[in-house]
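User: Predict the structure for this protein chain, please.
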Amino acid sequence: MFGGLLEEQSQDLKLRVVNHKKRFVKLFYGRYKEMLPSLIVYKNSEPTSVDFLKTEVALRNNYDVVIGQTKQGKIMIMGFITDHQSSENPNNLLANNPLKKEDIQFIIPSTSIPDNMEEISYVDDCQTGDFVVLRNKTLNYINDNEVIQHYTTELSEIVLSRYSVSMQAKINTFFMSEANDETINQIVTDLYNGSPFIKVTKLFDPQDNIHTIENEHMASNFVELKREYQNKISELNNMLGINSLAVEKSSGVSDTEAKSNRSYTTSNANIYLQARNEPLEKLNKRFGLSLEAIYNDQVASEFGQVAYSTEGEQPNEEI
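Assistant: Here is the predicted structure, written as structure tokens:
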């Protein structure tokens, strides 16, 4: 490629655009997948031996995590359930009995597994039992991966448009010729490579074959594409329970307007928090703990900074 242009430069440019879109999809989707395990943290976890980061990685990958007491009396991750038919599963209204030891795929040494195990239940006011089951969502009709994939696809089209506009903005000279005219191909190649002079035949007429246009107005499309890009990220963040700007305006946004979608975002956040905190409440009651799942303010605020202004490049407002 460094020796000059391809025979048809248009094919090279098309390939660049396609590869740019593919790279964005890979980068954006991967970054949000990396972010998910850090989005929720756990308070008052010091008295336990639970690896809550591993817990979140498992939950975000659709494992139902078993947290309970080992034979040595430690509270830690014990494994994953293999049977979802449990009276303690809010999604299962017909099951009558809590889970047992045989319903768990253990990841701890066999020497730490109690001889008998039963899921902690409200049936006896959490007075007995050895473990609870944490789920990513109480009702799991929509996979988080599908949500991220959907918005990644939409965002990739916007990014593709921005990239295409930036390339088109550089084009202001057109060379007209017959199809497969090698003279024009050689002229474009020489110009691209910085040749100080170009040899042409008498048939080449600069006035007829070279045309220049003004396309500076195309740069104005960047503002609208940027606005739509941030709107889509805001929608994605709201779906994941991350607070973001509620309205889109070209001027300043009031605090009331910025928080006008807080109820929707909070509802989405509760989908994840309640699925964790409800079993943790039973674990707390059984073993005298005070565990609580909450959103990581630092991560949420970083991904929620989508407030912006198109006038005067004012600094973003942190929501």
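The mean pLDDT is 81.
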